[in-house]
Amino acid sequence: MELKSKEELKKSYLTTTYLVYIDGEQSAIKIGEPAPFVIKKLLDNGHTAVIITAWNPRSQAYSLEENKQRNINLLASLDNKYLVRNALGQGNDPSWQAEESFFILGINQEVAEQLANDYEQYAYVWLEADTPASLVFTGIWNE
Fold this sequence. Notes:
Blueprint: H1 6-15, E1 17-22, E2 25-30, H2 37-43, E3 48-52, H3 64-77, E4 83-90, E5 99-105, H4 109-118, E6 123-128, E7 131-137
Antiparallel strand pairs: 1-2, 1-4, 3-5, 3-6, 4-5, 6-7
């Protein structure tokens, strides 16, 4: 797979649909748009959430087996401290497989940033009540 420039990667991240699975329902999250009702209900009362993956560090394609193991490690590192649901990052590029991810409720941005850096992710989705979903670029984005 051909490597993308940072500008192309940024565009891909911004146009990805992030699907979250809660109680058998699929909710689609788009950057810059309000969260769907099911997600918004979870974010009420000051909760925050992140959508993050351990797949394809630094946007380099890894094997399915490696990516799955990386996500197992990410989930284990959360140590049952948060409400975690499955998510999927579905981009518009058909050559790039949708990335299995996690929706993590109750996490703060400092911990989210640390996780993203630990798993070499350029960005993650940040969610808070009454605020459109945002894409947060990590410190390694500018390395």
